[in-house]
Each structure stands twice: as C-alpha cells, then as structure tokens.
Amino acid sequence: MNVSILFLSIVSLITIVSPASYCQMFPLNDKKLIGALDDELSGESAKRNLEYLSRLHRMRGSEDYQKAVAFIQTQIKEYGLENIELLEIPADGKIMYGTQKSRPAWDVQFAELWELENINGQWKPTIRIGNWEAVPLVLAQDSESGEVITDLIDVGTGRSDEDYVNKNIKGKLVLTSSQPGAIVPLAIAKYGAAGIISYAQNQPTAWYGENDNLIRWGHLETFAEDKTFAFMVSLKQARDFQKRLKAGEFIKLSAKVKAGQHPGNYDILTAVIEGADPTLKNEEIAFTCHLDHPRPGANDNASGSVTIMEVARTLKKLIDEGKLERPKRTIRFIWSPEIEGTTVLLNYRPALANNIKAVIHMDMVGGGPETKAIFHVSRSPKSLPSFVSDIGEAFGRYLNEASDKYASGEAVDHPVVSIEGGKEDLHAVLGQFHMGSDFQVFSEGSFRIPSIYLHDWPDRYIHTNYDIPANIDPTKLKRSGFIGAASAYTLANFNTPSTASYLDLYQHQALLRTANMLERVPYLNPQEQENLKFHHWQYERGVAQSITHFGKPDSKLQKEFLNYIADLEKPIGKGAALPGESSTIYSRNEKIKGPMSVFGYDYLEDQYGADKTAKLKVFSYRGLWGSSGEYTYEILNLVDGHRTVTQIRNAVAAEFGPIPTEIVAEFLSALAEIGVITKT
Q1: Which residues contact 200 (CB under 8 A, 6 or more apart)?
Q2: Please, which of 211, 450, 487, 678 could form a disulfide with 386 given CB 3.0 to 4.6 Å?
Q3: Mean pLDDT estimate for the chain
Q4: The pTM of the whole model exceeds 0.85
C-alpha cells in the first residue's frame, strides 16, 4: 500500500476510534476524579504563593533560596503533608555526587554599576546603570567581589584574539555580546581586563531581540580558575554605549561588587501523602520542580514550584474530606535546585531513586498570553518506553478538547478555569520529547524512571527581568495542576485491574504514534525507512510491556495488546535494523550515575578535557529531528551491556534522524576512556 494512502487510512481510523466527544468521555472513565480536582484546585491560591517566591533571588544555597524553602515548608505543613523533610546535602566545590561536582553556594551583598562624568576636573557618578538590590539580574551568577573605576572598551563577541587587536583592555571593563563566562579565558586571563559588561541576548525564539529593554541572566563559570565579576545590561543600553564609543567618546564606569562563593548545602525539601496499600506504599509517584532561579523567575520556575504545592494541598484536602480515597502508592513532592539538585539527590539517597515509579515534572507551567508560551505535555525518551506518558497525554487531551469547547461557547462539564484567569483554550502539544529540565535526570539510563514533563516553550521572557507575576495566568496554573494531579493519582492507584481500562487508551496512542512515524518515512532512504519501522514497533511493544511494572494484565488481555500491534504492523511492515558494522558492546559503570552535562558542570569535559571534548563530532552534529544534546543523551542511555555500537546508532537514528556510525563510536570511545562505560 502507498505510504501516503496508508497514513490517511490511519488518520481516518484515529477519527473513528477518537470522535470529537472522546475527551468528554473522560480519561480512563474517571469522572469522579476530574470533578473533584476541578472543584478544589485553585489557580488563585497558586499565584498568591508565586507572588511571594518571585520576590526572592533564589540562587543555589543563597539566603533567599533558604527563605523560599522555609516558606514552602510552612505552607505544606499547614496543608497537612506527611513526613516533611529538609535535606541539607553538603556542597563545597569538591564533593562529587555521581556526575555532579557540588557547586558551592553563592551570595551577593552589594553590586552597583555607575557611569561617571567629569565635573570640574573630578569624576563623579551621574547615571546608575545597574543596581543589584533593584534588579538582581544585573550581576552575572558566580561573580566575585571587585571594585574599579575605569574606561569601557567594546570587544564585540570577545571570543577570538582578533576581537582584541589594537585594544588596550588591561585594567578596563569590556563590553561584549557573549555570555560573560565565554570570554573570561581571553578578556580576563590573557588580556587582563578588570571586569565584563555583557548584553548577551536570550535563547533564540521568534521574538529574539525584539524587546531591547530585556536584561538577560548572565553566567560565569563556577569552577573557572580566573575569577572576576560581570554586569548584565540591556541591548538598548549596549547600543547607546556602542554609538558613543564609535563617535570617539570615552566612557568611564565605576563598578563595585561584594559577592562570592562559599561552602553551603543543596537544600532539598520533600514531603509525601502516604499510600494506603501495605504492599504498594513503598512505591512512589513523585512531583518534581526546580525552586532555584534569579528574581523574579515567575514562570521559570516559581510556577512549577507553586503548582505542585497546590496539587499537594488539593489532594490532601480531598483525601481528608473523603472525596477521594487515599492512593495505594505514596505520592511524593520534591523542591530542589535545577538538574544538579536532582542528580545530587538521586545519588545521595539511592533508596529514593529505587522507590520512585514515575515522575511528574513541572518547569514553567503558568505563562499567560503575553509570554507567547506554548504548553507541552512531553514524554520520556524512546530509550525508556512507558505507558506513564500516555496517562499524562490523556488528561492533556481532555483539557484541549474541553477548553476548546468552552472557549467556543459550548457547554462543558469541567473546562478547568480560574475566576481570575483566562478563558482561552489550552491547545497543549502532546507526545513530543523535549530536554531541558530535571526530568531528564530521572529518565537517564542510570535511573530509568519514566516521566511526564509539563512545560511552556517558547517563553519570550525566560531568564530575563520581564519574567514577572503579571505574566502568569491562574487558569494555566490550575490546568497544569489538574493534568499533574490526575496523572499522579491515576498512577498511584494503577494495578492489574487498571490495565483493562488502559487498553483503549493505548490503542489510541499507538495509532497516533504510528501516524507520526509514517510522516517521517518520506524523509529517509529505503534502508533508513526499514530501520525506523523496526524501532517503532520495538518501542510500541516496550510501551505495552511497561504496564507490568505497575500491574500484570491477565494473559488474555496481554495478548490483546500484542495482537493490536501485530495487526497494525501487517500493512506497514515490520522493518529491519540496518546491517551491523561495529559489534563492540559497552556496559554502564554503575558507580557513575547521572547525565554527562548537568548544571554548571560538565563531567565529560572535566574528565576528558575541554579541547578533546570540543573536537568530538557529535557536538556539531544536527539530525533531521534532533540536536547534538539529544543524540549524546540517548546514546549513553542506550548503553546496556547488550546493544552493539551499531544497534545504538540505529536506535538514535530512528529517534532523531540518521547519524554516521563513526560519530556514535567516537563518542562512546570517549566515554569509555574516562570510565563511564566499559567494553563488555
């Protein structure tokens, strides 16, 4: 059958299986759960908590981060959560937790940047360019104390020696378009600049560079040998400097910073709603977020932090009032520093990693229309096939349908809106895999914990001084909490009888994934097409098999899952893995747990060497559907002591697009050289 005709046939079948009323039938037929959550969840309550957190400069280990933890601890105690625990895990810049070198705490006492004017032969401050107390983002993270009155020199990107030709920058402040940490080796170490003024722009989106008043979050390297300070300024301010410098004007600035690193702790707060089943209560469904971020950090990530607070309050109240039964499994809530905190936690408390069956992670879940945010309910990577993601997508699909009907004026039982929030449809993107937050640590090959990742992308104000509470929509917070709470409660109760109700959902999801796979076929040569099909059906069988981790279906039901896949397979073809070129097999070193690139520290670069790492071809490779970071993440995830190098290559080629085997082999060889993996 022609692929395009087959694709249309599957789309038609999806329409038959999933009519317009599909979502109003309620996911997994659980109308009681949906009604209870819609009645109790409060986007307004979540936003009130967010407004407080957004007043704090919540950098790792800092005084304001500790204030944020104390605030949440007080709130969840009032909510009646159980086993509240604050972990204080030492961080001194030396201790290793898996692949994360602990980063010392960083605090700021004072930072100001002034422009000076020569008045009657004396240089006097006239214009304050940056004030940390007013806008903490003006000081780059990990800046050290310093004080200087000197001239400003524009060095462009500052990343090559050519940028410094015929420029005497020794003892001067340099203006750069790059992130501060990127120019330290040349500007500070080689040419002797006194400090850095950066106007680095935000992550590229369709709105990149449009608002020239934005001040971007700046970074210096935590473990850099050459310490310095850096101020961040807006593009508007930088253009003014450049215009005047180009006209031959001398600009004199006064910079003063009192800041620095010191030994501290990773403060990680956790609490639970205990499970009721004596045989299942040691298994956990975890809510996670990252609490750390510069002020204001409203969407990133006060929104995720307060939304799981609201989920905790809601579930505990509904259970206490008898509106919901106490779940069979324990539901855990975790507030920690982004990625590094999660890597530290799972290495510090291995029993916790062993108990967690699934994660619902929230990172940026409240962006209103002004942020231009698009909401996502994302899946675990293909290396970790799991039905867990289908549960999250089911509730996301319900809200897409219900909110669309509600916004169009139709009667809807549960549109999930807040009185003070918007009424727009949710229009969540479902079923994609995205990197970029703590869930990727849980799903990494060391831990293999399936995840549902709720997040906004893009958000034009991420990491800037415009990420403020005014841009947060209470309805969005409520809907994010709804998807998370419904998914967690369903998974916490999922057992053998549940598999029967999941079968219809699985059939629908498998059809969607198969249609998506067929959309990719025309982009590939015949061999790669067969490889894509082969891994698609392997993945689908893996998803069906994954329910046995929660409850084993009876043999008849299990056969229905497998027969359904086989029936889909027949007209499309089973596909075949590409012939092997490298039979080398690697195993993971169980003593080194975590992803290679965490936060503020890169294990591969540190152990293998920055120059050698930069030359690895995988870091400059981009596939049809994936970037270098996605390839490197999944290549390591697929190391299991059974797959050959070629089989790993074929798997990532099916997921992200074809990649030369030698590039995969080179990367794996580098990992073996530093002991992360070993030849089997």
Answers
A1: 176, 177, 178, 179, 180, 216, 218, 232
A2: 450
A3: 94
A4: yes
